[in-house]
Design goal:
This protein is of the alpha/beta class. Among the domains are: 150 residues, Glycoside hydrolase, family 3, N-terminal domain (TIM Barrel), CATH 3.20.20; 203 residues, Glycoside hydrolase family 3 C-terminal domain (Rossmann fold, 3-Layer(aba) Sandwich), CATH 3.40.50.1700; 115 residues, Sandwich (Immunoglobulin-like). 31% of the residues lie in helices and 18% in strands. It has 24 helices and 27 strands. A six-stranded parallel beta sheet has the order 5-4-3-2-1-11. Strands 12-17-16-15-13-14 form a six-stranded mixed beta sheet, sandwiched between helices. α7 packs antiparallel against α16 and α8 runs parallel beside α10. The N terminus is likely disordered.
């Protein structure tokens, strides 16, 4: 078959024929090269050599690319650079095979959306998919083909920094979010125009790291693994995800990157995943670090045998040893060929052989699309969660003539964006104070004081070294003077907006915390502002729950805005002054104190359930704010629950309906949630499990009837008693309401 023939076929059969034709012509060394993906830290990459020890790295990578020893690169976003490097790849190998370019599209490329945990707080899969479509459009316009996202790890310990990248604690919500993210990235099919390959990560159980310490081992029961931690991954695979990334850590003693049961038996054989698997950065070589592999060659062989198709590496890849491993009999050439085939297939499906280069002029047009920024603003508005609003302090009157905005985070553009953002335009980012000033205009005096200095952690990851990632106080910053000035501003204003939380580099990868307390003197600042008697709103900017026990007793209004992204300040202003109303709901249980964690709503009844809310001598066992909680500027009542049938057969469904009444004078939207409990069976089931949710728009004073279907899929679970998925006869309790503590309930029997 000639090169012309290889480029001609576009059918599935044709693609398979191309794969076979290419594979037949590759040497063992060239095959290993196709399975190697390098970081690239050259000029015009996101950053040049962020860890300061890779002076020869760009030359090394370019030599590998030009010598058929690299199948892909990551962390390049400049389209001209991508085109140059792509030419090196195509001209550097005998068969003209293009390279794959990947990137961490965690919450956007140029347009930065709210962080993923915030997007999950929208409980709106359509909105989440739309945000990922924009990220994919911008990425593909500059030449990126593949997202190392979404992160679909369940996280129930907020000490773990990467809680910010996922959808929280619940598998049902997590599955819905995962599917939406995959559809947004990939479109209707793998290779759809203006879309990229989705790469769900980190397979699997990464969010259950012991002690909440990133990278540490994970020890999960089979029940927890199947019923909780694997569920979003299965949803992502069912949605068509083209790539999966295993986790760094050992799962039950076996590193995920070398875990054949996980990557082959479960992912491929049980679920039917037919995409390709990439290691996390350096994870193949880390098999030796784990003392799982003897050396780098053994690590490469074990990863390939487990089912890993491509190695992500900084330099000196382990997979360069694969040719020798095949010759030595450590792995078979058939295993190597299977991995290469999967990588070639995705390149063909993306159309890279026909169109390997990008239009550099069009990339500027796409990146500058103002519609993308507006979509980010809407997402920021819908992700905010109103935690508390005593006395209806919010929304604030637009007639306010003096507003004090206090807190260092209120005017920090870099922190407004949040972590895991690299190619942003800082100049177009809108902070909270800028948003309030723009919204109120010249008629109001909006004064700002940081009050406290930037908090810095004593150690960090390479991501801290990206420009602007470490907060720095301005020259001459006097902490005591600034503290007093902020309090004085609040005392003289009609209303104070205090913006507190975590600096963005305190959460994310390698950013676990042993405490959930507000860093530095922020709580002291809040207490001093409240003491002035000025009506005060607390705006929380964080990617995890922070300790708000004092605030929940003394601050009348608390609005969680997360890290809201490029247009976050505009969104915050519109929320505070009632242009729009908060509709977000918590995707995790908000603990009172770090001593409660891990805490989640779907626990079992266990022993003495009547005392379950008071297991601690010195603190309640309940969260400060429950899973699914979120207030609005409207108020809602749920009533008249009805279950369509009292008794159903094992494979039948019931319809559960209820009325939602808006008891306020303002139109509003609530997220109605359905929870289910199975009273008996082969295993003890959680007291409640989310099994349905929907956005409900209810006009002021009106009532809307809603309904949910509860069928076999909602009732099935993985039972350790039979070591399989099971449906059982039992009595089921069901509740509908606005959070996981919904009181309106009913029931039915399955026989």
């Amino acid at each position: 078959m000639t090169d012309r023939d290889i480029r001609a076929e576009t059918t599935d059969e044709g693609i398979e024929a191309k794969v076979e034709a290419l594979l037949a012509q590759l040497t063992l060394e060239e095959k290993a090269g196709q399975l190697t993906q390098y970081f690239y830290f050259g000029a015009n990459a996101v950053t040049a050599d962020p860890i300061g020890e890779l002076g020869t790295q760009p030359a090394l990578v370019e030599a590998a690319l030009a010598g058929s020893a690299a199948g892909g690169l990551l962390f390049v976003t400049d389209p001209a650079q991508i085109n140059r490097l792509q030419r090196l790849a195509i001209n550097g190998n005998r068969l003209g095979i293009p390279a794959l370019f990947g990137f961490d599209l965690i919450h956007g490329l140029r347009t930065i959306f709210p962080v993923p945990i915030a997007m999950a707080a929208t409980w709106d899969p359509d909105l989440i998919a739309a945000g990922n479509r924009i990220a994919a459009r911008e990425a593909r316009a500059v030449g990126i083909h593949w997202a190392f996202a979404p992160n679909v790890d369940i996280a129930r310990d907020p000490r773990w920094g990467r809680i910010i990248e996922g959808a929280g604690e619940d598998p049902y919500l997590g599955a819905a979010v995962a599917a939406a993210q995959v559809h947004g990235f990939q479109g209707e099919r793998l290779g759809a125009p203006d879309h990229v390959v989705a790469g769900p990560k980190h397979f699997a159980g990464y969010g259950a790291a012991i002690g909440g310490r990133d990278y540490d081992e994970v020890d999960l029961s089979d029940s927890e693994l199947w019923n909780t931690y694997l569920v979003p991954f299965k949803a992502a695979v069912d949605a068509g995800a083209g790539n999966i990334m295993p986790a760094y850590m050992p799962l039950n003693g076996v590193p995920a990157t070398g875990n054949r049961w996980l990557v082959t038996d479960v992912l491929r054989d049980t679920w039917g995943f037919d995409g390709f698997v990439v290691s996390d950065a350096g994870a193949v070589q880390n098999l030796e670090t784990h003392h799982f592999a003897v050396d780098k060659t053994d690590a490469a062989a074990k990863a390939l045998h487990a089912g890993v198709d491509m190695e992500m590496t900084l330099a000196g890849p382990a997979f360069e040893q694969l040719a020798a491993a095949v010759r030595a009999g450590s792995v078979s050439e058939a295993e190597l060929d299977a991995a290469v085939s999967r990588v070639l297939r995705v390149k063909l499906l993306l159309g890279l052989f026909e169109e390997p280069y990008v239009d550099e002029v069009r990339s500027l047009e796409v990146l500058g699309d103002p519609g993308h920024r507006e979509a980010a603003r809407v997402a920021a508005e819908k992700s905010a969660v109103l935690l508390r609003n005593e006395g209806e302090l919010l929304p604030l009157s637009r007639d306010r003539t003096s507003v004090a905005v206090v807190g260092a985070l209120a005017d920090s553009r870099r922190d407004t964006l949040g972590p895991w953002a690299f190619d942003f335009d800082l100049g177009e980012t809108v902070t909270v104070v800028e948003g309030i000033r723009a919204y109120l205009g010249p008629a109001a005096r909006v004064e700002y004081a940081p009050g406290v200095g930037a908090s810095q952690r004593s150690f960090g990851s390479i991501f801290d070294l990206w420009p602007g990632n470490i907060p720095v106080d301005p020259d001459g910053f006097d902490p005591d003077h600034e503290f007093g000035r902020a309090v004085a501003l609040a005392a003289s204003a009609e209303v104070a907006v205090v913006v507190l939380g975590e600096w963005q580099n305190m959460v994310g990868e390698n950013a676990s915390r042993s405490s959930l307390e507000l860093p530095g003197r922020q709580l002291e600042l809040l207490q001093a502002v409240i003491a002035t008697g000025t009506p005060t709103v607390l705006v929380v900017m964080s990617g995890r729950p922070v300790d708000l026990r004092w605030a929940a007793e003394h601050v009348p209004a608390i609005l969680q805005v997360w890290y809201p992204g490029t247009r976050g300040g505009d969104a915050a202003a519109r929320l505070l002054f009632g242009e729009v109303a908060p509709t977000g709901k918590l995707p995790f249980s908000w603990p009172r104190t770090v001593g409660q964690v891990p805490i989640f709503y779907s626990h079992t009844r266990s022993f003495q359930p009547e005392t379950q809310q008071q297991r601690y001598w010195d603190e309640a066992s309940t969260p400060l704010f429950p899973f699914g909680h979120g207030l609005s500027y409207s108020t809602f009542e749920y009533s008249a629950i009805r279950v369509s049938r009292n008794v159903v057969a094992l494979n039948e469904s019931v319809t559960v309906s209820a009325d939602v009444t808006n008891t306020s004078a303002r139109d509003g939207v609530d997220v109605a949630q359905l929870y289910l409990h199975q009273r008996s069976g082969s295993a003890v089931r959680p007291i409640r499990l989310l099994k349905g949710f929907q956005q409900v728009a209810v006009p002021a004073g009106a009532t809307v009837r809603i309904q949910f279907e509860v069928g076999p899929e909602e009732r099935r679970y993985w039972s350790a008693a039979v070591r399989d998925w099971i449906l059982e006869p039992s009595t089921f309790d069901v509740w509908i309401g606005g959070s996981s503590v919904a009181r309106l309930g009913g029931g039915f029997r399955v026989e």
